[in-house]
Amino acid sequence: MRCDLRGKVALVTGAAGAIGSSIARRLSDNGATVIVADINGEGAKEVAAGLTDAMACATDIRDVASVDGAIAAIMQRYGRLDILINNAGVNTLAHRVTLDEFPAEEWDRITGIDLDGLYIMSRAALRPMLAAGRGGRIVNIASVVGLAAMRLQSPFVAAKAGIIHLTRSMAIELGAKGILTNAVAPGSVMTALTAKLFYGDDGKFAGRTQEFLAHVPLGRPAEPREIAEAVLFLASPAAGYVNGQVLAVDGGWTAGYMM
């Protein structure tokens, strides 16, 4: 889609990755100034270098000081923040095990980034957005596993389910102040992690790829650009009356059980 985001400043977390960089690119394509935020500072610089008007920002969303510093840098350079895309998140490769075997430190790492980090970044970003009184948009990247649970990834499931309900809570709290909060729930997306798990010769689930895709009516994983397009819609003027919603971009995964 095409929309007019000229004059808007957008912050995308986890923007050095496949989905985040696609989101940053689509926002930039439509006129937004984009802050490419990622714990991978060099990766953020590479993405920002390919955009029309962008700033790279090395940011650890788990760290309050790092997040506050990022917001301060944005305000110093641009004087405003209009759009926040909470995309940063992780899952696990090594620990696809049941809850009773799941390491506590890995639970803390995943929930600490995926849910706690989203809270830390949202809280910091809301201060200038609310102070300006111009409204704004927040789009949280959840997952279909927050809507329909999967086994062997309990902290990821818990964090993404938390994001979905947090999105609704934020929408209720912030809507009257002109800040609309929504979520996108991707299904399987062809990222480096998905490729390694399902499509690499030594992937843990390489032999079960077709079985997994049998649950997806479209029979394929999404491309990162397809997730980015949904985010662009929710950040655009076209979504001016959309608030507190979860848009599943999952090829029909959550529509129902396929026999």
Write structural notes for this entry.
The chain has helices at residues 18-29, 41-49, 64-78, 104-132, 154-174, 192-199, 209-213, 224-235; strands at residues 9-13, 33-38, 54-58, 83-86, 136-141, 179-186, 246-249. Strands 3-2-1-4-5-6-7 form a 7-stranded parallel sheet, with helices on both faces. The mean pLDDT is 93. The protein has 8 helices and 7 strands, in the order E-H-E-H-E-H-E-H-E-H-E-H-H-H-E. It is α/β, with parallel strands linked by helices. 47% of the residues are buried. Helix 4 links the parallel strand 4 (83-86) and strand 5 (136-141). It folds into 2 domains: 9-187 and 224-251, Rossmann fold; 191-221, no CATH class. Helix 1 (18-29) packs across helix 8 (224-235). Helices cover 43% and strands 15% of the residues.
Would you tell me which CATH topology of the largest domain applies?
Rossmann fold
How many independent structural domains?
Answer: 2
Fraction of helical residues: 40-55%
Overall mean pLDDT stands at 93
Structural class, judged by helices and strands? alpha/beta
Name the CATH homologous superfamily of the largest domain: NAD(P)-binding Rossmann-like Domain
Q: What is the architecture of the largest domain at the second tier of CATH?
A: 3-Layer(aba) Sandwich
Approximately how much beta-strand content do the residues carry?
5-15%
What is the alpha-carbon Rg in Å? 18 Å
Q: Helical element count?
A: 8
Shape by Cα distribution:
globular
